Amino acid sequence: MEQMEQNLRKIYDLAIESAPRILMAILVLIIGFWLINRLSRFAKNAMEKRNIDKTIRPFLNSLISIGLKILLLLSAASMFGIETTSFVAILGALTFAIGLALQGTLGHFASGVLLLIFKPYKVGDLVELGGGEKGRVQGIQIFNTILLTLDNRKIIIPNSVVTSNVITNISGQGIMGVDMTFGIGYGDDIDKARSVIAAVAESCPHVLNEPETLIKVSELGDSSVNFLVRPWVNSDDYWATYFYMHEHVKKEFDKAGVSIPFPQVDVHLEK
Description:
The protein has 271 residues and is an alpha+beta fold. The chain folds into three domains: 100 residues, Helix Hairpins (Orthogonal Bundle); 50 residues, SH3 type barrels (Roll); 82 residues, Alpha-Beta Plaits (2-Layer Sandwich). The longest helix has 48 residues. The radius of gyration is 33 Å and the shape is elongated.
C-alpha cells in the first residue's frame, strides 16, 4: 500500500513538473499550425500576384506547408523531452527503406519535378503524351499528368511514362497549323478543287489571314489525287477548325461537282 502511494506521488510530481512543458508544446502546436496555414495562404497569394506559372503553384505551396509542419512537429517533440536527433536518424532510415520499396513511385516523383522545372507543357495546352494519348492538360501533379480528351475522358499518365516518351506540345506556340488531307478523283479539275478548298478556309471564322493557308497536291494515290491543306489558327480553335473544314469542304465539293473517291479495284476476267 505504501509502495503504491509512493508510485502515485511520483506520477503526480512528474505530471506537475511536466505540465508546463506539455501545455507549452500544445500551445506551440496550435499557434504553429495556425501560422503555417496563414503563411501557406500568403505564399499562394504572392505566387498569384507574381504571375508564377499556375502549374507549379500547388506543388510549391504543398512543399512549403509540409516542410514547415515537419519542423513544427520536431520542435514540439523536443519540448516534450524527446531526443530529436535520434528521431531524425530513425526517420532517415525509415525514409531510405521506403525509398527502396517505392523506386517506381520515386521515379514518377523525379519525373514530375523535371516536368515542373523545364515545363515542356502547361495546364491548358493540347498535347500528345505517353506514346499517343492526346488531350488538354488538366493538371500536372507530382506523380501523374492528367489529360482531358476531346470526348471528355480523363487520362492519368505516370510522369515517368511521359518523360520516357516523345512529348508533343500541339498548342504550345500560340498558333498552329491544322493538317488535313482531302482527296479528289483523277477526272476532277485540280484548280477547281483548290479554289473550293480556299473558299471554305476563307469562310471559316477561326482561320487566320497570316500565315497563308497551305493548299498543295501532296500525293497521287491509288484512287485519288490528295491535297495537303494547312490553315493556321489560334491553339484553342484547333478542333473547331478541323471539324468545320471537313464538313464544309464535303458540302462545297458536292455543290461544285468535285468527287471524293473511295478505294476501287478493277477486275479483268480472261475468257
